[in-house]
Amino acid sequence: MSSPQSPNPVVYPLTDEVQHALGVAKRGVDELLIEDEFAQKLARSAATRKPLRIKLGLDPTSPDIHIGHTVVLNKMRQLQDLGHQVIFLIGDFTSLIGDPSGRNVTRPPLTREQIEENAKTYFEQASMVLDAEKTEIRYNSEWSLPLGADGMIKLASRYTVARMLERDDFTKRYQGGVPISIHEFLYPLMQGYDSVALESDLELGGTDQKFNLLVGRELQKQYGQEPQCILTMPLLEGLDGVEKMSKSKNNYVGIQDKPEDMFGKLMSISDTLMWRYFELLSFRDMAEIAGFKREAEGGRNPRDFKVLLGKEIVTRFHSAADADRALDAFDKRAKGGIPDDIPEVSLSGAPLAIGALLKQAGLVPSTSEAMRNIEQGGVRIDGTQIADKALKVDPGTFVVQVGKRKFARVTLTA
């Protein structure tokens, strides 16, 4: 384990190299704790040429990573490019407990099988942002399972219930009479113990993770380590501009979305939200982004900049050619045209209920979602808007459209 700070630690000079690294670390962050400490860590690293150990933990609670996750992954990549050792930690043990952060009820625990299935593609997806060859990948079951009952009890003795109840979401639930299960107290302890096991110098997370990150800092002190610094990134709002991006809220852009879907979703955000996405997702210089904003305020169409953002993100996860094709397809749809490349679907059972047709064609996940789209005027057959939820569709071949981005050429037989 690393040594705790001595009473009279060496003070390293904050060279131009260190100041640059600190500026990179601070771009777009919500909070950096403690900045002076981290500046010294950077300065020591520069002087000794020993990389910092920088940790990010993600629980595989769902199989997909969306661009909201990449806000913190982008920061990891920036620090990785500065020469530091980044650690991508998959919380296969902590997922068994369930993170209570931001929850007003106990989170249903996942099974080991669900966790393993979700974890399969996590690092593969994260590697679309991180340099995989330079990334240390770990699973917290490595040190959490060997703790056993004895070790878990000893770990639990290092933190008090009073300290746990300082946590905002626990406090609200306790005061509101909403049950808090004992196992939920274990989550921040186990996440904190990850920092001890990995001897991390800096831990990253969303703003909702601040309490958990601070527990890690405290436990490192108790285990005789130099405490990690903490860098929290803002939570990216979803496409609706209200709730944080989440697959469960269907307001997300998946990093494995098709180019046309990814581009179309990004073009759907508000002109105001666009600047937030630029700040947190774009790799462009902040001065350049500020210039874009001035141009928009001066009368230039904000759509021009939204196109630049959309193409940048699609290029990052696909290619520049895919981004160009996605823009062409979007423009064609905007003019009422049909994209050149749409799925061909063959169905039987005519006359077929419209809800079943939309679901079987893969345009909606459920018939209830089909009904909702019809109610909102978002369903068209060969360009004609469908308002009748009881419609039975006769045999034939036709283009079916749901919303602005989903098309299928359906051949329906009896």
UniProtKB/TrEMBL annotation:
Reaction equation(s) it catalyzes: tRNA(Tyr) + L-tyrosine + ATP = L-tyrosyl-tRNA(Tyr) + AMP + diphosphate + H(+)
Keyword hit for Cytoplasm: yes
InterPro entries named among the record's database cross-references: aa-tRNA-synth_I_CS, aa-tRNA-synth_Ic, Rossmann-like_a/b/a_fold, S4_RNA-bd, S4_RNA-bd_sf, Tyr-tRNA-ligase, Tyr-tRNA-ligase_bac-type, Tyr-tRNA-ligase_bac_2
GO cellular component: cytosol
Sequence motif: 'KMSKS' region, positions: 244-248
Top-level taxon: Bacteria
GO BP: tyrosyl-tRNA aminoacylation
Main location: cytoplasm
Localization in the cell: Cytoplasm
Residues engaged in binding ATP: 247
CDD domains xref list: S4, TyrRS_core
Short motif ('HIGH' region): ranges: 60-69
Quaternary assembly: Homodimer.
Family: Belongs to the class-I aminoacyl-tRNA synthetase family. TyrS type 2 subfamily.
Function recorded in the entry: Catalyzes the attachment of tyrosine to tRNA(Tyr) in a two-step reaction: tyrosine is first activated by ATP to form Tyr-AMP and then transferred to the acceptor end of tRNA(Tyr).
Protein's UniProt name: Tyrosine--tRNA ligase
